């Protein structure tokens, strides 16, 4: 019989599936039995959503509580109800402990929580509707995962020439970054009072999160007329130059839009091409995000507790690039692929927002009867 653990994100999961396996000295007979339709919850994490609906028979630790819905309560409906903000708040309010990380929701206190639910047929229709939404979300997440894996593969293959597009056979050229451009620094001499107003600048998070600078996600800084600050322009490549881990160092993003006035944050370094005859910014966007270049950038990270990107070492870095027309074709293909990934991500976000709004409408409820009139609880 499987042994389940209760997780905050995935509900009841087979303990064998957990990356970090939990050890237990308890025998099977010392565990609690859960049957399909039962809900098990973690007394210390119920207010954070640590509960799960059993879809098959299994065992759980006696540290959990097993709820057995009565005949007039649909288990799936109850599991959705428990995910609403109001119920999360009530689980927190009825828990005991000096600090949030020590709160416990004991069975007797759980039974005192007021809840209001409709008649069983309405519960079942509501649960079925929300379940259909979950199925749509799961299907889209699978498509997102498949498209993401495909994008990573073609990104890795096309940015090193392991896979060539039809019609291109010429050798790729090896060039040193310092031979095709130069670096510049970000904002300097700024205090806390200078931020939040003034001119736009590219924050660190924008560069780290996007292969192409998102001009809708800029911050503001006060830059006075005549002040010596480096302004950004189309085609500039930005690298994260300071990080707590070497893996995050050297993450690149490219400015692919014309801007009137834009600056760079002080924790990143800018690289400006002398011209676009050797490297296209559109191709650079993907080249510097490819795993081969990422490994090269990892090797020039400097530091122990905090890592920094050395500009002289960056300028010594060699890159391999195809002819300009092949760069253009590769960039267009990868741009389409990335757009498909982002479209799936946006669709998932939209579906989740719609589901949340639906849950608020269907499960909002008002103060009602204590839970012990609806559920029975079993605990060790």
TrEMBL record:
Cell wall biogenesis/degradation as UniProt keyword: no
SUPFAM superfamilies: DNA methylase specificity domain
Main enzyme class: hydrolase
Matches recorded under Gene3D superfamilies: DNA methylase specificity domains
EC number: 3.1.21.-
Keyword Ligase: no
Domain Type I restriction modification DNA specificity, residue spans: 235-348
GO molecular function: endonuclease activity; hydrolase activity
Keywords: DNA-binding, Endonuclease, Hydrolase, Nuclease, Restriction system
Family the entry assigns: Belongs to the type-I restriction system S methylase family.
Name of the protein in question: Restriction endonuclease subunit S
Source species of the chain: Lysobacter gummosus
């Amino acid at each position: 019989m499987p042994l389940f653990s209760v997780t905050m994100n995935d509900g009841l999961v087979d303990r064998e599936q957990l990356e970090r396996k939990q050890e237990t000295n308890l025998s099977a007979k010392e565990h609690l039995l859960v049957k399909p339709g039962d809900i098990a919850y973690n007394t210390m994490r119920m207010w954070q959503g640590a509960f799960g609906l059993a879809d098959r028979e299994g065992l759980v630790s006696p540290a959990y509580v097993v709820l057995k819905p009565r005949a007039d309560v649909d288990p799936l409906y109850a599991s959705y109800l428990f995910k609403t903000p109001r119920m999360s708040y009530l689980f927190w309010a009825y828990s005991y402990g000096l600090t949030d990380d020590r709160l416990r929701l004991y069975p007797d206190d759980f039974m005192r929580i007021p809840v209001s639910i409709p008649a069983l047929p309405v519960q079942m229709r509501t649960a079925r509707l929300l379940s259909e939404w979950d199925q749509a979300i799961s299907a889209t997440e699978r498509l997102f995962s498949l498209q993401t894996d495909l994008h990573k593969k073609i990104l890795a293959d096309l940015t090193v020439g392991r896979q060539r597009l039809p019609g291109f056979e010429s050798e790729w050229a090896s060039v040193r970054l310092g031979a095709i451009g130069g670096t510049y620094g970000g904002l300097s001499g700024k205090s806390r009072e200078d931020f939040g107003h003034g001119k736009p600048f590219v924050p660190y998070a924008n560069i780290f999160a996007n292969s192409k600078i998102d001009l809708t996600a800029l911050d503001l800084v006060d830059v006075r007329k005549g002040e010596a600050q480096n302004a950004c322009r189309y085609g500039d490549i930005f690298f994260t130059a300071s990080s707590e881990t070497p893996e995050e160092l050297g993450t690149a993003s490219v400015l692919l839009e014309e801007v009137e006035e834009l600056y760079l944050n002080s924790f990143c370094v800018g690289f400006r091409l002398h011209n676009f005859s050797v490297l296209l910014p559109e191709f650079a966007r993907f080249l510097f995000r490819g795993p081969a270049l990422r490994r090269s950038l990892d090797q020039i990270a400097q530091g122990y507790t905090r890592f920094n990107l050395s500009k002289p070492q960056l300028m010594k870095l060699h890159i391999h690039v195809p002819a300009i027309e092949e760069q253009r074709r590769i960039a267009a293909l990868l741009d389409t692929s990335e757009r498909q990934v982002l479209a799936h991500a946006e669709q998932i976000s939209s579906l989740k927002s719609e589901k949340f709004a639906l849950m608020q409408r269907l499960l909002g409820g008002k103060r009602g009867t204590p839970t012990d009139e609806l559920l029975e609880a079993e605990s060790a």
